[in-house]
Amino acid sequence: MESLVDNREQTITYFVNGESQTTHHRKLTVRSILDSAGFTPPEDYRLVRVAGNHTYTNLDEEVPLHEGEKFTALFQGPTPTSHGSGA
User: Fold this and answer.
1) Cα–Cα distances in Å, from 28 out to 49, 62, 83?
2) For residue 8, what pLDDT band results from cuts at 50, 70 and 90?
3) Which of 38, 53, 55, 60 gives a 20 to 30 Å CA spacing to 18?
């Protein structure tokens, strides 16, 4: 007798900077993870997987996702400076 495979899509919940995100995909690009979590433009951020402290620098790299996984988005973009004189 054959076993039946459950073809329903599983929802995966993961976290970026403590905010929950959901997907039906087992892999997402770094760019997609940052975009979905509101970190735009993604070029200004680096994504770090909390477990293992792995930093992703390639925005097109596919990241395998697991239920409850935690990531941190770190700002790496230019910081505005003021050019006025203080009084």
Assistant:
1) 13, 5, 40
2) low
3) 60
Q: What is the pLDDT of residue 7?
A: 47
Distance, in Å, from the CA atom of 16 to the CA atom of 56, rounded to the nearest integer, reads 13
Taking the C-alpha atoms of residue 58 and residue 33, their distance in angstroms, rounded to an integer, is: 12
Specify the pTM.
0.81
**Triad 25, 27, 32: Cα angle to 5°:** 90
DSSP codes joined into one string, the chain: -PPPP--SPPPEEEEETTEEEEES-SEEEHHHHHHHTT--SGGGEEEEETTTTEEE--TT-EEE--TT-EEEEEE-SPPP---SPP-
Asked if residue 41 has a cis previous peptide bond (ω within 30° of 0), the answer is yes
Which of the four pLDDT bands, split at 50, 70 and 90, describes residue 1? very low
